[in-house]
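The aim of this short unit is practical: by the end, you should be able to scan a pair of folded records and say something sensible about each. We start with the first protein, listed as its amino acid sequence and then its structure tokens.
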Amino acid sequence: MHRGNSARLHSKFPAINRGYMQYYQAVRGFLEYCETERNHSAHTVEAYRLALDQFADYMREAEINIDTISSLTTADIRPFLGYLHDQGLSVKSIRLKIAAVKSFFRFCVKRAFVASNPALLVPSPRQEKKLPSFLQPAEIERLMASFDTSTPAGARDAAVAELLYSSGLRVAELTSLTVAHITAEPQIRVIGKGRKERIVPIGSKAMESLRHYLAMRSQLVHPRVSGQALFLSARGNPLSPAGAYRIIHNALAPISEASQKSPHVLRHTFATHLLDNGADIRAVSEMLGHSSLSTTQIYTHVSVERLKNIYKQAHPKA
């Protein structure tokens, strides 16, 4: 598929001169390299193809007549940022396309097509930082009270919500849990991103909810498909991330005005409430399974924004 895509880019433009022909050939080689040597996904290879296709459009419109790829300079590439902005692209899309161009020229350096990377000093626009959505304590109370725990499905849904909020799990981590993960100890061993293992605590309410669900789990079990998965669907299959999303989304819809209504909101809420109540940021980062403390720091911004709003509302001269 990708070789066809690169050939399509190669044949889209006439060979104006040797420099452009060399560019198209290098792009084709780069896409094949991404596919076969780097094992990039089909989605990534296609995104690179589109970005380099757009870079070729930009060079033609800017009338950049290159003798060879090595004749391209940083000054030639930098206006590509403005070109993309004029196309109405988001900051995220522009960052991805600039990254593709930089990767392409890194490949060209590796293949000795150019002596140095002319895109190296081309800046990327700063990523817009969006503060994560989270729930207020009263919304958490309403959420947990909304489940009918007298039924197996309701007991499961309550346990899913309690565990996500209590332990800050990612939804994929939650749906990969087995019955054996739940022991008498108020903690679980989780395999997170990059196959990294961590131990996270389980709060008393979440433990109570899990025990209640486990007492009813047999009513959901289907011998052929259930296995040892902790959370099961109505048909007895292991609960999927999409199934967990529906549970939380449907439960939050009538009780919260948060912009996001997903399992990840409970993870955000877990971190925000801990920091609001004085938890050490390093401990929170470890419980979340973040590889860098800087990833966790977004939640300190959430807490500061809340303090600012409280101050404005409460201080007579704010």
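Turning to the second protein, read its sequence before its tokens, just as you did above.
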Amino acid sequence: MREKDESELIFAKIDDKINFCNTRNKITHTDFFTEPEIVKIEKYLNSVKCKNYFFFGGYEESTRKMLFFYPDKLTFEMAFSNVNQVLEILRITLPNSQKETFEHRDYLSAIMKFGIVREKFGDIVVYPEGADFIVQKENSKYFKDNLSELIRFRKSTIEILNISDLHENVQETEEISIIVNSMRIDNFVSEICHCSRNKAEEILLSERVLINYEVVNKNSRGVKPNDIITIRGFGRFIVKEISRKTKSDKDVVILIHNK
């Protein structure tokens, strides 16, 4: 499906949610959206002048979020208190013999084995003792029953908890320094991916590069401090600052890499 068609489908579903909220005078919500989708959705909601909504995915820095709509009779605070009735945690606690053996991709592949589409659950917060899956309450028992059947988790404790019990998500970061000829995105891709400018252009054309969660495919797109550069397969990088110029008038840029 083309990107435009996908966006139109998402917007149509959102219109249905808005109509339900307004006609039934009730809070309603969507499935989980990715950060690039959220950027597009916010632009759409602004264009239709929708104000009574918020995104939430279980914690402030979550990368996947649900969209909640609420009627005029409620304040944001009243509507936000409703998330505890919608979101839960599915916690897997590993036995001592398996601690620190599984990564995010291991947990993700496990839950995808059931044929569940990705938008039906949110972030997976991984820590040495196990992982917390952020799920919609209506699906939590189904996830638990199926995960319990997997051989890799048969010795694990799997439980459903309140969203407020979410394990703290400590994001590992590192500062890195790169030198670029100019503040064009192709220079950043080339330095981050340790590749030629021609290869960087290929990566851009393959739509693997995002700035502030929007796909960028023009190599001349400018980059500025505080921009968030995402390169699929390499991670996310926040442009912290241009620290100085080199003797050859190149820019030395400090990036914060979210591992």
